[in-house]
Amino acid sequence: MRFFIPQDTTALACGAEAAAHALQAAGIEPVRNGSRGMFWLEPLLEVETEQGRLGFGPVSSKDIPSILDALEADASAHSLYLGDVEKIAYLASQQRLTYARAGLGDPVCLDNYQTLKGFKGLKNALSLTGQQIVDQVKDSGLRGRGGAAFPAGIKWQTVLNCDSDQKYIVCNADEGDSGTFADRLVMEADPYQLIEGMTIAGLAVGATQGYIYLRSEYPVAHKLLNIAIERAVEANFLGENIQGSGQTFHLEVRLGAGAYICGEETSLLESLEGKRGMVRAKPPLPAIEGLFGKPTVVNNVLTLAAISTILEQGAETYQNFGMGRSRGTLAIQLAGNIKRGGLIELAFGVTLREVVEDYGQGTYSGRPIRAIQVGGPLGAFLPESQWDTPMDYEAFAAIKAMIGHGGIVVFDDTADMAAQARFAMEFCVVESCGKCTPCRIGSVRGVEVIDRIVANEDRDNNLILLHDLCDTMELGSLCAMGGMTPFPVRSALAHFINDFTGEGKGDN
Asked: Any idea what DSSP says for residue 62?
């Protein structure tokens, strides 16, 4: 029997290291895998048996002796027994493409990755021209998973068409949105997939150097990525003359500056160049003048990780998932006041209600859900009347909301939505790069105006002023930091106005 205990950040925070030590004390050396994304079950102990991989969770170090005894007798009699992990409803009902390998083995074991069809996409890409690779990405319908949802193939085509002595691939791994952890889970559970995707991107556009701009608060991902890159170079999947093809691609990890604004692509590039993270005016686009003034592909982790699947299985297979212009799968992250938090990968089109009620099982507190914020701290607060909206970029845009990076934060009926709107403005005050006036000054004024509204100081006129201020920030800001801060504020005003007027909680 083989035993598996995750080593990713969430599992470690829940006590996985102590559980692993308890197994070692019993003479068992567990495989340190990555989480499957069922965070409410972490630490999840998996035991490989003739009946499949049996799960126990959430386990602690003191549970290990009784689990070992149960395995000798009747495993199903143990109180933490979960049965076949693959058949747990939360996991079994997903459509996993990007996370198909997550949790199956040691994330930095090259043999494990290749056994699970790893690097097949790269091998296919090595037989294609750059244009043929770009065409595959275009045909797949893949859109950027970082928030803007721009078609990845169009961005790549722009970089491919540029004539330059040097081009770059930059992975935005500065995952800063509240309630998001999908990028981290890829890097901690399946880092070779990101490496493979970035290498394919380099082959596609003619770039020989790549950088992973990693959030500084992700030390586990940092360690695993560096190990994976080193082993990929040793195995000739990275570096010079990849697999004897004559093609070259080098990859490095660079730690981020600890600023939310560096998740914006041009600010990220400034930081990567060693400067303060300040937003650049566009044009020129980074695809034409990006890192060090050279043509640069900037995609986030999930976008680049999807590339290996597209090149391995074909554009048509990937395109068959989803709806409308939203193709493929979406990594949905459930957080906040939620009973079963974790990561879900589903084809676009599932409704928000299905995600929160069927997978999340409602609130952790057991109280009714009042609002759901989708897309990070700049996403709109959605009342129950909008929960049947399908997870689709255009469908969300139609209700003045966004999917963004796929993060979902749930609030129960004790939440003060005026306070949440104030927090959105305050967040912008703290995290703005300060380059443009609407964002830098507008957010400060926004906090003040909301305070006056709640205090009933000339409330009617201040409500008008707040709407005008939101217009100015949305239309006049240099980037989405100031441009999208009005989203949560406006949605709170539209659907939870009673919280601003002191008339008691309740949808407008």
From this structure: G
